From TrEMBL:
PANTHER family: D,D-DIPEPTIDE TRANSPORT SYSTEM PERMEASE PROTEIN DDPC-RELATED, OLIGOPEPTIDE TRANSPORT SYSTEM PERMEASE PROTEIN APPC. It is a multi-pass membrane protein. The gene is oppC_2. This is Oligopeptide transport system permease protein OppC. It comes from Achromobacter animicus. It is found in: Cell membrane. Residues 93-281 form the ABC transmembrane type-1 domain. Belongs to the binding-protein-dependent transport system permease family. One of its GO terms (cellular component) is plasma membrane.
Length: 295
């Protein structure tokens, strides 16, 4: 007798839904569609940064504090040092998305591993891993990130690692809850009855069904990672060799009364990117959550 496949999963399980049905449900959420289009625009700007602005964005190219639309060469103006803000925004989009995606991937990998192992093994392993998760949850995230960056150095790799490490506990708890809900389902019992390895059941049968809510959570982690990076750069601990939206906001705060646009332009970029990610996450929740299919 062969091992049960995805076809044996109950109809309410997330893995049993069709991709076209997911697209239809996602498209019904107008906010999610708007967020996806806005996020696509940010990604296109990031991908074309080298083509639009081939010169190093940190290079001084004009007079300082040229206001937006005052010169056609600098549509978003220049900062207090004479750097092109449009170039900083374009190149900063690449760093922002890269940090957000890699940090979210790191947090998801750690969180899914810890949560799945805790729920599936149970006993003292579950207890120990959950206490470890709670330990990370009570540590102030911003303080932890700033401490790690201060110790390891203000490099983009260290910032990404620190943000990923502080972002995994919610994913771990969600994964654990999902695994516990599927642990005693009929298709899992059928897999055990035919002699499948328990960890193979967890990886091949339970994990695909537990992932949809984790994907929604991961999209929100990307938004959180962008905010963490902006805070680190705003406080002057960001990588000095790359363009950063948070760093531009931090450098412009001393001129907030005379040249407020230096803070406003990257601030709006951060706001719109985080908003688009939250809208996409809301749309993913509507499309992947079976309880919301008839909403």
């Amino acid at each position: 007798m062969s091992a049960p496949s995805a076809a044996t999963i109950p109809a309410g399980a997330p893995a049993a839904r069709r991709p076209d049905a997911f697209a239809v449900r996602f498209a019904r959420n107008r906010g999610a569609v708007a967020g996806a289009l806005l996020l696509l625009l940010v990604a296109l700007v990031a991908a074309s940064a080298d083509w639009l602005y081939p010169v190093n964005p940190l290079r001084i190219v004009g007079a300082p504090e040229i206001w937006p639309f005052e010169s056609w060469r600098y549509p978003l103006g220049t900062d207090s040092m004479g750097r092109d803000i449009a170039a900083l925004i374009a190149h900063g989009a690449r760093a922002t998305l890269l940090i957000g995606l890699v940090a979210a991937a790191t947090a998801t990998l750690i969180g899914v591993t810890v949560g799945a192992a805790a729920a599936w093994a149970g006993g003292w392993i579950d207890e120990g891993l959950m206490r470890l998760t709670e330990l990370f949850q009570i540590i102030p995230n911003v303080v932890f990130v700033l401490t790690v960056v201060s110790v390891l150095g203000p490099r983009i790799e260290n910032i990404t690692l620190a943000v990923g490490v502080v972002s995994w506990p919610p994913i771990a708890r969600l994964t654990r809850a999902e695994f516990l809900s599927f642990k005693e389902r009929e298709f899992v019992q059928a897999c055990r009855a035919v002699g499948m390895n328990p960890w193979r059941i967890a990886a091949a049968e339970v994990l695909p069904n537990a992932l949809p809510p984790v994907i929604v959570m991961s999209s929100l982690v990307v938004a959180g990672a962008i905010l963490y990076e902006s805070v680190v750069s705003f406080l002057g601990l960001g990588d000095p060799n790359i363009a950063s939206w948070g760093r531009l906001v931090g450098e412009g705060r001393s001129l907030i009364r005379s040249s407020w646009y230096i803070c406003a332009v990257p601030g709006v970029a951060i706001m719109l990117t985080v908003l688009s990610l939250n809208l996409v996450g809301d749309g993913l929740n509507d499309a992947l959550n079976p309880k919301l299919q008839k909403r």
